[in-house]
Design a protein that fits this description.
The complex is a heterotrimer. By secondary structure, chain A is of the alpha/beta class. Chain A folds into two domains: 10-96, Alpha-Beta Plaits (2-Layer Sandwich), CATH 3.30.70.20; 138-501, Aldolase class I (TIM Barrel), CATH 3.20.20.70. Chain A has helices spanning 24-28, 55-59, 82-94, 184-197, 232-237, 264-270, 290-303, 320-329, 349-354, 359-373, 390-398, 408-414, 436-439, 444-469, 474-477, 491-497, and strands spanning 10-14, 34-37, 42-45, 65-69, 99-100, 115-117, 138-140, 149-151, 156-158, 166-168, 172-176, 201-202, 219-223, 240-244, 256-257, 278-279, 310-315, 334-338, 347-348, 380-384, 403-406, 484-486, 500-501. The N and C termini of chain A lie far apart (68 Å). By secondary structure, chain B is of the alpha/beta class. Chain B has three domains: 3-43 and 56-108 and 241-309, FAD/NAD(P)-binding domain (3-Layer(bba) Sandwich), CATH 3.50.50; 111-238, FAD/NAD(P)-binding domain, CATH 3.50.50; 322-385, no CATH class. Chain B has seven helices and 23 strands. Chain C is α+β, with helices and mostly antiparallel strands. Chain C starts with a strand and ends with a strand. Chain C is globular and about 40 Å long. Chain C has two domains: 1-59 and 121-148, no CATH class; 64-106 and 115-120, Alpha-Beta Plaits, CATH 3.30.70.20. The longest helix of chain C has 9 residues, at 16-24. Classes of the chains: A alpha/beta, B alpha/beta, C alpha+beta. Chains in contact: A-C, B-C. The interface between A and C is medium-sized, with 20 and 21 residues.
């Protein structure tokens, strides 16, 4: 049998003096990298299967080993990188589409890292978030053109009827991750954390497990092109509905859940046969034009009696601004834009790495476009696609976002180490798997706690940054591009982002 | 209201501790023929071998009777129980009346009638004083060779105690294997091999026909087939039978080989309870009533009896025939009755140096056997607490 | 009285509880020495039972009505007044192994360190939290009071 030319990606460096052959690593590796030799009473490693998830290293009671990149060097070639070469090895071997997980990992420019924030000094006092009230509360939904009120001696009463709104105590939501791509325990952790933090989480395209209905008020129910798990109760239980046209990780194609990740529970929730691949079609087969989208939006509104906001999610592509404008005019109450770096459970790596545009540029364009048309208030716009820290949140809000979706960030809080092997269903951290032996590893009590901690931590940091800018309400930051400056960006980029260069007053 | 307990071992202590849990006021009288405060009978073989000292024999602290307000009457023999009069007839003429009675007289060693059985140097081994007397005899006469008649638990532990004193031992067993009531064939052979390794001679399928003396003490024996074996000491360890001498069918206390009791340890006579090696109580494996003479069951039966005597209803869920014995450094445990081929019974054996890891389900109970990662131990048994 | 309870839905079968229990009851209490230098190795008092995806750590339950106490012929096994834990006085234990036989959970083992005595969970009575609980990476083991 011909050699497949593939070499290990990682190497395990074990200190034999420290290793006590306790076999924790042997038991914990879902890829059977570590093996115990009973005769010699020692553990050795078959690194060909190592994916670099660090589960073993984290649990080793004695830190006896570490995992490094395999040191095999090709002759330096800036064009034919090792990745390019090994991708061809794999395709020559399998003849198939190369799959991958999580978000684009190529070194395209990260505009967040070229944007800097302002702080007030002297002319404008800063605000101390520990001593003065700060408002991070955000309302997502269609805002009225004008507000009419009646004034009496005692109170102010609203005459204008508001469209349904979602209330978030902080402008962060958990992004759409389907039950199927992630485990039940992960979904439960997200749902509970959403409730604890008074924000929302998104079901993704996998439908909603019945036992999670109690978290309905904190749930956004998604309808993707496969329409998995969509039935009347699903629509009624949630706080809002989302039509997913596209996803940042794979714009233009539908979702992919391999058959290995479709056991009984998934089969029931998604309403598909057990063990079959769940492949969502590329388009929604009932949305071929903007009029079709409008029809579906209103069908959903009718079905829920106009009590819930309807959101539409698209991937950030070249003409994202006109598309967003169309969606708003089609009746969407909320728009979600998912950038190039958005994550996924499974996608062809060539699409994940080469299709779409970064969220920062996309967002700036969408926000500017909607404002220019005077319809910015008709929908809330949510940014997604690798929001990595609270500074990214503040920056994208300053660029115009109402709120952000975090996906990868939430999974990292749960333990993900970004080994990008989600599609194998062997997630050692119990997140992107349905194997009951592995899903136990994510204790929802711990998961909820970690997610809640993350949201709290970021909220505090956001308040600190706001306070430093002299602002005490997130609403005042929204679209306030004057608080941003670019560094290391050229004129075109600055213009697209709509921000000045650092140094300009 | 007076509680009276005949007996001073595990069942009696269990009863006292149960009674006092529910009734701290009424008096308890305890009658026993042995002169010692309650002691751990299984330790007598350790005492013989010098592995424990006399101080460690006590089962409860010396002030136990005081603490629990029990009046002990030691060195007193009960001749007869009269359930109609609620009275005990004591040796020497006295009587004692009771309101609630517990009979926990344990077992008496089975002594076959063999010619020469009255020679010196012949012992049974069920009591502290047996151990003392044997030790004195061994020291006094420099015993070098001993014969243990009976290859059951007591026989084996006795052998161990004798080996510890540098005495050569031969075991005579009537069945075709030692521990035949507990071990199956394989385990029995294993145990035999271990004993042989220690220099013990094991003779199965035979028994002692006659004992011949020398200068008034035991000198040699003649076996069934006529063979002659020298010995300076002989121990009958054939078995115990329930000590039911003081009860009679006519008096209204039904017995079989032992005293029959129900699930609340009541005998057929009102307010008369029985517990321990003297009773036939429920064997949860076979579903019949029979004597299972082991320490933990005796305590539990006594405890259940005591609860019921004090008015707190308790049921005895039944006992499992099981025992543990260390054969010359090799620990063994058994459960079940291998001689009766019933579903679910299995005997266990273990041996050093080999891993035995097995699982099995025991019928009739919700118990389970746990696997062991230790190299020697093989199984454990579930009994309701 | 606090006891150790296990939530089997979170036990991942890593056996770190066994490892830390062993170290706690070793002579040196240092993990490398306990595993590589001490011979015979100390015994962990907790054992993870596993079948398929189901696993849970099992140790002495410190039963309210303990069969082992009733079975002990030398009264070596007794209850500690402070914690309610069931402990064995190794000076008194003669190694008759009755307790091993009667324990319904199979939680007692023979001590292999040369002394004839038993080995079982002692609730780490010198520590504030038993080490198995403290080191369980998925919070499957908890140390708490529960109504029974």
């Amino acid at each position: 049998m011909a050699s497949n030319l593939l070499l290990p990606e990682f190497r395990v460096d074990r200190d034999e003096e420290r290793c006590i052959a306790c076999q924790v690593c042997v038991r914990q590796c879902a890829n059977d990298v570590h093996i115990y030799d009973e005769e010699e009473d020692r553990v050795y490693s078959d690194e060909s299967r190592c994916v670099g998830c660090h589960r073993c290293v984290t649990l080793c009671p004695i830190q006896a080993f570490t995992v490094r990149c395999h040191p095999l060097d090709f002759r330096p070639n800036a064009n034919w990188t090792p990745q390019a070469i090994t991708d061809i090895f794999k395709q020559a071997e399998t003849g198939g589409v190369l799959l991958t997980g999580m978000g684009c990992d190529r070194p395209y420019p990260i505009y967040f890292d070229h944007i800097l924030l302002n702080a007030s000094q002297v002319t404008n006092p800063t605000i101390d978030p520990l001593r003065e009230p700060m408002e991070l509360r955000t309302y997502l939904g269609r805002k009225p053109d004008r507000v009419e009120v009646t004034l009496t001696a005692q109170e102010v009463e609203m005459k204008t009827k508001l469209a349904p709104q979602l209330t978030l105590e902080t402008p962060i939501l958990f992004s759409a991750m389907s039950y199927g791509s992630i485990s039940y325990n992960a979904c439960l952790s997200l749902a509970r954390a959403a409730r604890e933090c008074s924000i929302l989480y998104n079901t993704g395209e996998g439908g909603l497990h019945r036992s999670l209905y109690e978290y309905g008020p904190y749930t956004i129910a998604q309808l993707a092109s496969g329409r998995f798990g969509v039935h009347p109760e699903y629509l009624q239980v949630a706080a809002a509905l989302e039509i997913r046209i596209g996803q940042g990780a794979r714009p233009g194609i539908g979702g992919h859940l391999p058959g290995e990740k479709v056991p009984a529970e998934i089969s029931q929730t998604r309403m598909i046969p057990q063990g079959t691949d769940a492949l969502s079609p590329a388009p929604h087969h009932d949305i071929y034009s903007i009029e079709d989208l409008r029809q579906l939006i209103y069908a959903l509104k009718e079905a829920t009696n106009y009590t819930k906001p309807v959101s539409v999610k698209i991937a950030a592509v070249h003409n994202v601004a006109p598309i967003a404008s169309d969606m708003v005019r089609a009746g969407a109450d909320i728009i979600a834009i998912d950038g190039l770096r958005g994550g996924t459970g499974a996608a062809p790596s060539v699409i994940r790495n080469n299709v779409g545009i970064p969220i920062e540029l996309a967002f700036a364009a969408v926000d500017a476009g909607l404002r220019a048309e005077g319809i910015r208030h008709q929908a809330s716009v949510v940014a997604a696609g690798s929001i990595r820290n609270s500074a990214d949140v503040v920056k994208v809000i300053a660029l115009g976002a109402d709120a952000v979706y975090i996906g990868t960030g939430a999974l990292v809080a749960l333990g993900c180490h970004l080994c990008q092997k989600c599609y194998t269903g062997k997630c050692n951290w119990g997140i992107a798997t349905q194997d009951p032996y592995l899903t136990k590893r994510l204790n929802p009590n711990i998961g909820t706690r970690r997610l809640t901690n993350l949201i709290h931590a970021w909220s505090l940091e956001i308040k600190e940054m706001l306070g430093g800018t002299g602002i005490n309400a997130i609403e005042s930051l929204r679209g306030n591009r004057d608080h941003l400056r670019g560094v290391g960006l050229n004129e075109v980029q600055l213009r697209t982002l709509g921000i000045k260069a650092a140094g300009e007053a | 209201m007076r509680y009276v307990i005949i007996g001073n071992s595990a069942a009696a202590v269990g009863a006292i501790e149960a009674i006092r849990r529910y009734d701290q006021d009424n008096p308890i009288t305890l009658i026993a023929d042995e002169p010692h405060p309650t002691y751990s009978r299984p330790l007598i073989t350790y005492l013989l071998g010098g592995l424990v000292s006399e101080e460690r024999m006590l089962y409860r602290p010396p002030d136990f009777y005081q603490q629990y307000e029990v009046e002990p009457m030691l060195r007193v023999w009960v001749v007869q129980v009269e359930p109609q009069e609620r009275e005990l007839t004591l040796a020497g003429g006295g009587t004692l009346s009771y309101d609630k009675l517990l009979i926990s007289t344990g077992g008496v060693p089975f002594v076959p009638s063999v010619p020469g059985g009255d020679l010196e140097g012949i012992f049974t081994f069920t009591r502290w004083d047996d151990a003392r007397r044997m030790r004195h005899f061994i020291e006094a006469y420099g015993v070098q060779r001993a014969l243990v008649v009976g290859g059951g638990f007591i026989g084996l532990k006795t052998t161990e105690g004798l080996l510890a004193q540098g005495i050569r031992v031969t075991i005579i067993e009537l069945a075709d294997g030692i521990l035949s009531a507990s071990f199956d064939r394989t385990a029995s052979h294993l145990a035999e091999a271990i004993l042989r390794r220690e220099g013990v001679e094991v003779r199965t399928g035979t028994t002692v026909q006659e004992i011949i003396g020398r200068v008034g003490k035991v000198g040699h024996v003649i076996l069934q087939e006529g063979e002659r074996l020298e010995c300076d000491l002989l121990v009958f360890a054939i078995g115990v039978r329930p000590n039911t001498a003081l009860v009679s069918q006519e008096a209204g206390i039904a017995t079989n080989r032992g005293i029959l009791v129900d699930d609340q340890m009541r005998t057929t006579a009102p307010d008369v309870y029985a517990a321990g090696d003297v009773v036939e109580a429920l064997d949860m494996l076979l579903g019949v009533r029979r004597t299972i003479a082991i320490w933990p069951l005796a305590y539990r039966q006594g405890y259940v009896a005591g609860c019921n005597m004090a008015g707190a209803e308790r049921e005895y869920e039944g006992g499992l025939p099981m025992n543990s014995v260390e054969v010359c450094g090799v620990p063994t445990e058994m459960v079940g009755t291998p001689t009766l081929r019933r579903r679910g019974t299995k005997s266990w054996r273990s041996s050093t140096g080999r891993r035995w890891r097995t699982r099995s389900w025991c019928c009739g109970t919700s118990g389970w056997w746990g696997p062991s990662s230790s190299a020697t131990l093989t199984g454990r048994v579930f009994t309701p607490a | 009285m606090k006891r150790i309870y296990v939530n089997e839905e979170y036990c991942i079968g890593c056996r770190l509880c066994e490892i830390h229990c062993l170290v706690q009851h070793s002579r040196s209490k240092k993990i490398i020495k306990a595993f590589k230098e001490e011979m015979p190795r100390a015994l962990p008092r907790v054992l993870v039972e596993e079948e398929g995806a189901l696993s849970f750590a099992m140790q002495c339950r410190h039963c309210a009505e303990a069969p082992c106490i009733k079975a002990c012929i030398t009264v070596a096994i007794h209850r500690d007044d402070l914690t309610g834990a069931i402990l064995c006085d190794e000076e008194k234990c003669v190694g008759c192994w009755m307790c091993i036989m009667v324990c319904p959970f199979g939680a007692i083992r023979r001590n292999v360190e040369g002394r004839k005595a038993i080995s079982k969970c002692d609730l780490c009575y010198v520590e504030e939290t038993p080490v198995c609980v403290a080191h369980c990476p998925n919070e499957a083991l908890v140390y708490e009071e529960r109504e029974v």
